Amino acid sequence: MFSRRSLMRHAVLAAGATALPAAAQPKRDWAALGADVKAEMVWAWRHYRERAWGKDEIRPVSGTFSSFPLKTAHLGLSLIEAMDTLWVMGLDAEFADALAWVKAELSFDVDGEVSVFETSIRLVSGLLSAHHACGDPKLLALAKDLAERLLPAFQTPTGIPYRYVNLKTGAVRDPKTNPAETGTYLPEWGTLSRLTGDARFEQAAKRALVAMFERRSKLDLLADTIDATTGTWLSKRATIGPPVDSYYEYLWDGWQLLGDRDCLTMYRTLTAAILKHQREVRDGRLWFTTVDFETGKVISREQDELSSFYGGLLAQGGNMAEGAAYTRAFAWLQDKYGVLPEGYDYGSGAVTAKTNNLRPELADAALNLWLLDGHEEWREIARTHYLNMKASSKTAYGYAALADVTASPKVQRDHCPGYWWSEQMKYYYLMFADAKRFDYRRNYLSTEGNVLLGIKRGAA
């Protein structure tokens, strides 16, 4: 296993990059802000416990609930996603309550179709991180059972998985897929293989990663749509955003967590091509264009909010200057609208998607940068992210996604995604509080914010 922080620092030095100087920041009572994050987690959890216990997602405006990833049954999604956050915050009674529900109620023997990608990053990952926190073997057994139910999707001529699988029958559907849904498995599935001694999971995840990489263009770029059965590209769009984003993240993570040098080589090859063909500075701010993956011709200058994670990834991989600059561009956009819109065209200056689905990506980037250089600038960005979320998304029964971030007041939607419990609430707490149960020097967080390395079990 590798140290997240020491490995990032080594990568920056190897690349010859230096962190940009942080602007002077006011003194903050970060501990008080961390305590506030914890209090909000407790408050929201209480409403989930009272109104949606064991259900997938609470509807925070009406106090009802919705199901995901199944359409007609619940798998306790938010509960599972919250577990390692509860542990890191020292909320032992809440964690024990969730663990008791999982051990008594959770079963994946359901005749229903799920997204292989979403189910893996949320539920397999959530169970593994909860197991990392408390060591209960039932959690590991459930993670393995679920991953086995997802494995039929990987049985294609290319190794690229189908998008959907029936949890009970193993029936698969939809070969029209993308890099993110192909390659966002290795850290969790590699961890699962190493904990259980069953190599099938790591092998399937690695084969899918490599199959996608081998189909890159002569410019070393990936497009965003592919046929899993034939390996034929169905588009020419190269983007760092969805539906490609976490493919790049998991190449680096395969190296960072598992020490897989093939992943490091693939990450460096694709990142060099992105920096060569997609980087663009406009009005002093760094952005990344969408281009034709075969010619490099610009297709679009629209930025998806999910792309804001990329600044943190670049910094992890050694491109600190570019990572800091890209994160500052999104921080500027956050300051402009208070909450990031889902879509923004930096060429025209127009908002192209007014929604925000309680997104955590900018806070994720800020955390990665802060773990690397310790500059207060990144905590300030996360502080703004947190306080603006409180001001715009807090409702009667929880936190709500936004239908329009450009309106005043901002318009809410009756939806709280499961990742809210796992991602930004954890990112905020780790940045603002001195989390005694988290190893700041040696850790790993998944694309869903799940801690697979770095939890301290003995800490109070």
Can you describe what's shown?
The protein is mainly α. Strands 3-4-5 form a three-stranded antiparallel β-sheet. A hairpin with a 4-residue loop joins strand 14 and strand 15. The radius of gyration is 21 Å and the shape is globular. The N terminus is likely disordered.
Structural class by sheet pairing and helices: mainly alpha
* Global outline: globular
Global Rg: 21 Å
Q: How widely separated are the two ends? A: 24 Å
Integer average pLDDT: 95
Strand content: 5-15%
- Count the E strands: 19
Largest sheet: 3 strands, antiparallel
Low-confidence stretches: 1-22
Report the total helices. 17
What percentage of residues falls in helices of 4 or more residues?
40-55%
Strand order of the largest sheet: 3-4-5
Q: Brief description of this entry?
A:
Helix content is 48%, strand content 12%. By secondary structure, it is mainly α.
Question: Helices, strands, pairings?
Answer:
Layout: H1 4-15, H2 30-51, E1 57-59, E2 64-66, H3 77-88, H4 92-105, E3 113-115, H5 116-134, H6 137-150, E4 164-166, E5 172-173, E6 176-177, H7 179-183, H8 186-196, H9 200-213, E7 226-227, E8 237-238, H10 245-258, H11 261-277, E9 279-282, E10 285-288, E11 290-292, E12 298-300, E13 302-304, H12 310-316, H13 320-337, E14 343-345, E15 350-353, H14 361-373, H15 376-393, E16 402-404, E17 411-412, H16 419-422, H17 424-432, E18 444-445, E19 451-453
Antiparallel strand pairs: 1-2, 3-4, 4-5, 6-7, 8-11, 9-10, 11-12, 13-14, 14-15, 16-17, 18-19
